Amino acid sequence: MKTILPLAFVTALTTFSPGTAEAADTRCYEMRIYYAAPGKLDALNSRFRDHTCKLFEKHGMVNIGYWLPLTNTDNKLVYLLAYPSREAREKSWKAFGADPDWQSAYKASEKDGKLVTKADSIFLAATDFSPAISPSAATEARVFELRTYTASPGNLENLLARFRNHTLALFAKHGMTNFGYWTPTEKKNGAGEKLMYMLTHKSPEAAAASFKAFRADPDWIAARKASEEKAGGSLTVQDGVKSELLVPTDYSPTK
């Protein structure tokens, strides 16, 4: 006898079939921050524009985006790369460093002195609630905001839950675009205590207006109150929220 399954059950099987769920992002991300020598930021950007970005791609790295702080008193360049894994990252950088084209470009660019005085690197993993992270160019200019939260002791998971269940949707409600969310993977860079994320805004003024409306939203006030009552206090340490507005470089795949 042929069994006829109820339509609702068939629909559920189709909806939750293993192949239909979005795969988790297991890539290794790396945020790199370069501090250019005085008067050398333009030359550093030229080296990335003309050589480095192409050579990164040649050696299996994905250029996500390149940004400069809106107020760049420290001559910073911030960029984000993605790799299939940490092991793949090490292989790519080894091949990149040995590439004759890179060695030639590096030597030529530094004939009048070093371009970079300091370089920082933060290895990151995407959170389970992060939007899909990929290079994207908007039709209109936009401003990016890099925000770093340092969780109070034992409260990173509570902080992540608040973002997962409330904050992202409320950001979108108030005109902010969620670009990507990460946690550092190395203890020296805050693994187990930090959340880093990027938002996009139409302008610095729009960013200020959006956050003003977000902070006054009764749904946010209620979510924050409930999360802090559950944790027994603030989910971040004092002065544990840092923000920096960034603008994409002309050669950034993400604009």
Helices and strands, with pairings:
Elements: H1 7-15, E1 28-36, H2 41-58, E2 62-69, E3 76-83, H3 86-98, H4 100-109, E4 116-126, E5 143-151, H5 156-173, E6 177-184, E7 194-201, H6 204-216, H7 218-231, E8 236-248
Antiparallel strand pairs: 1-3, 1-4, 2-3, 2-8, 4-6, 5-7, 5-8, 6-7
Helix pairs in contact: 2-4, 5-7
Summarize the structure.
By secondary structure, the chain is of the alpha+beta class.
Annotation keywords:
single chain; disordered N terminus; eight-stranded antiparallel barrel; alpha+beta; 7 helices; Alpha-Beta Plaits; 255 residues; 37% helix
CATH domain class: Alpha Beta
How would you sum up the major sheet? 8 strands, antiparallel, barrel
SS strand fraction: 25-35%
Question: Which sequence of strands runs across the widest sheet?
Answer: 1-3-2-8-5-7-6-4
CATH topology: Alpha-Beta Plaits
Give the uncertain stretches in residue-range form: 1-21
Task: Give an overview in words.
The structure is a single chain. With 255 residues, the chain is of the alpha+beta class. 37% of the residues lie in helices and 29% in strands. The chain is built from 7 helices and 8 strands, in the order αβαββααββαββααβ. It has helices at 7-15, 41-58, 86-98, 100-109, 156-173, 204-216, 218-231; strands spanning 28-36, 62-69, 76-83, 116-126, 143-151, 177-184, 194-201, 236-248. Strands 1-3-2-8-5-7-6-4 form an 8-stranded antiparallel β-barrel, surrounded by 4 helices. It is globular and about 60 Å long.
